[in-house]
Amino acid sequence: MKIGLAIENKTNLKLFVEEFGLHYDIVLLTENNILNDNFDLIIVDRLNFDYYKSKIIEAKTDQKPSILPVLLIVEQKYRKRLKSEIFDYIEDIIWIPVYKDEIIARVQNMLTIRNLSKKQKKVTKSLNEDKIKLNQELKIKNKELKKRIVEAIHLLVKASEFKDVETSEHIKRVGKYARLVANIHERDSNFSINIFYAAPMHDIGKIGIPESILLKNGKLTNSEFKKIKEHPSIGHKILQEGNTEVMKMGTNIALHHHEYYDGSGYPEGLSGKDISLEGRIMTICDVYDALRSERPYKKPYSHDKAIDIILNGDERTSPDQFDPNLLDILKKNHKEFDNIYKKSII
């Protein structure tokens, strides 16, 4: 894999070259090679970022839907002076002074995400090629297509796990909750099967959110919260080119799982049935499991406490946020939710 470096400080530059030069192809960034060398990671300091900004944006655009990660190195004194829009063009920040162990962990993590992103692009391309052959061997190809869809989902979900505190068990549970609700809602069996596979992709957009925000223990600043609210739109952009039923449903779920029935959600402030059914189902399932799960900012709640919050509200949650029909399904079948959760932690 190829890493592009643009670092003025000779000590920091030497540290990166020595740590990664034996295992990766290290290239000093120039105006000529930034668009032509197909980098897997760009590491740049503040001054060079300003200098290469337009080229970095162009390189990231050219490589879509794959994600070209950019790691920015910034002096501590600029922490409060960074403009919020800079987060539109980078994936993570390391503050100077830099520490060897932190650098190794961050760079390896970003390269892992890059590798998974490239694999997902290849899998999606392969899925589209398979579609052309469906008329010849429809029955056989349907089985193969489903297998590859699941592989693509697993790759996407695994990529998001590298950057998020949410566990793989959370991802599995929300699919089971969603399938349960869909079955009770009396949708056709295909809808229930599709939502089971699509629900785990709800937070795939967090790939595009810096770890410094996702893993922060304290309260988010306004700019940080604004950034994290972009993950539904990022997830939508990643998945929107998928043309299977599961991928289309996953696209809706990624975009709509933070929209609320009363219009108080994001990113578009949709309300009522303007929100897709799969999005409305995902919202209530995700909130339930989030309440049950430990987070950097909260302890896990009991089943009874989680249900009480959803049905009666607290300072952050209101029952008006959820589809009344789905709220009724949860109320009548909440023990099934608890069973799914308990089985996942045994």
Automatic annotation (TrEMBL):
Keywords: Coiled coil. It comes from the Bacteria. The keyword Coiled coil applies. Residues 124-155 form a coiled coil. CDD domains: HDc (cd00077). Residues 145-346 form the HD-GYP domain. InterPro entries: Cyclic_di-GMP/3'3'-cGAMP_PDE, HD/PDEase_dom, HD_GYP_dom. PANTHER family: CYCLIC DI-GMP PHOSPHODIESTERASE TM_0186-RELATED, TWO-COMPONENT RESPONSE REGULATOR-RELATED. This is HD domain-containing protein. It comes from Candidatus Mcinerneyibacterium aminivorans. The lineage of its organism: Bacteria, Candidatus Macinerneyibacteriota, Candidatus Mcinerneyibacteria, Candidatus Mcinerneyibacteriales, Candidatus Mcinerneyibacteriaceae.
